[in-house]
């Protein structure tokens, strides 16, 4: 180098150093933020300092370290002094302005916060620039107070809810937008936190929601931090607005106090709750019923179907209505208590105290047993042959003194209450047939028998009793005849005067009442009178024109006066005449016939009548004898009437006497 050149160089250095000293250098980026994957240019401007050479370096790279080669790069007449890293591009424009370009492949996040420095090659003036690499926001999340990350969430009507839009880390800070629909927006607050050199944006939005409306209730966040880039969006959250019903539930189908009748149609009780969201849940406590759900879009409904019977009486059915979200604490209960009328149970009738058989002349009590119905007030009626027995009320049937007439009576008990009054018929018991033991009751076909000697006697004695009696006939102390059942016949063939007397019909049986055995016995007496006549001649004979007397004597109780006594004269089958005799004594009647003639022959019958029982009942008796008259025959066309009528002296008087001849007569 010659002297002239050296002088020029020295002059340049002086000028350069002077300019470095006086000028203010700047180092600026091509944009506020570098974008990863895109080239980024740093411009070093000495601002007319006439710097002929600069050096640019990243401060975190030590270009003076041992072993680091240095190189001078000329660009468009400008000189860059730089280390051995040639991955950067350098340009120089007249001015001079020096530019360093970080290529796209080099511009990564690793370049972030790296400080670049441009300075004079000879030292002195310099400028620095920190490269900030832009990181776009890539996500934004939407969260609720409970941090549930769901697309559909529940909020409660009119209750403030805070939702948070949170971005991931980015540079620069993202702008967050909250978009809502169908809700009321409250205060919005924003905060930024740093995660290293990245920025996280958190926006809190308060909202309230109300029921109704046709617009979907939603919220969504969006975020962007680089102008011109597409914003990112969070998930869209749809709100289900829960709220409680505004009206009280209802219970229909039955009203407390209403009377149901057993056997009525099944009862349907319905519990309903209008409004609220979601619809209320209805549960039952009702006779093991779970209920049948019958919801509509706006009404929760459930019903139970009940059989109307006595088991339902006084039972309570309760429906519980509650909102399905326990946080809303909405619960209502409705109850009904049923009143069911039903009849008493079918009664039974049994002896009370002493069981069957009962004994006559004692007291008998039947008891009617039933389970009361509802209402429990029970009316008792006692029936015989389905007819009400007057004077017997209450649940006992009382007979103060039992007789034979009570035996075999069919007794029933009928019970009733309000139910059977409104829903007849009443309940009727089984038939209880009274079993009353009593002494036999004897019936005789005749109480007194008066027969003529030689007639047959037949008297039937029958007896009824409980137990069934055996009947026998007795005379005095001897058994006269035996019976095998409830009837015995006393038969006397051709009674004689010796049969006159008192006969007894006896009936007896053996009963059991409780643990005791008892004999029942009855007897009835009958008097048999055998009436006979005695005539003093067996076959009287009278000669013509002679007189004859025929005596008739009646043998019967002498205390009984005769009503009538006379004679009848019969020839063959023809009654010739009736003759009235003269009563001479109480025992004999004498028929006197003077001047016997042929026409006096025939049969003469002595007749008598007596009232044995003083009841105007007359018994007639007769006895006959034949009179033979020895006389020549008489021939006459009308001889019977003529001769009989001419015999004026043939008048007979009848004397009837009574004699007591037999034992046993009073």
What report would you give on this structure?
Strands 40, 42, 43, 45, 46, 48 and 51 form a seven-stranded mixed beta sheet that branches. The chain has three helices and 53 strands. With 666 residues, it is mainly beta. The model is unreliable at 1-21, 64-71 and 637-666 (pLDDT under 50). The longest helix has 20 residues, at 3-22. This is Ig-like domain-containing protein. InterPro entries: Cell_adhesion_signaling, Ig-like_dom, Ig-like_dom_sf, Ig-like_fold, Ig_sub, Ig_sub2. Residues 249-335, 347-429, 440-522 form the Ig-like domain.
Mean pLDDT over the residues? 81
Tell me the major beta sheet. Answer: 7 strands, mixed
Q: Count of helices?
A: 3
Q: Give me the secondary-structure category.
A: mainly beta
**Cα shape:** rod-shaped
Low-pLDDT stretches: 1-21, 64-71, 637-666
Q: Over the alpha carbons, how many angstroms does the gyration radius reach?
A: 75 Å
- Percent of sequence in beta strands: over 45%
Provide the helix percentage. under 10%
Topology, number of strands: 53
Give the terminus-to-terminus CA distance: 211 Å
Membrane topology: Single-pass type I membrane protein
Subcellular location: Membrane
Protein name: Ig-like domain-containing protein
Signal peptide: 1-23
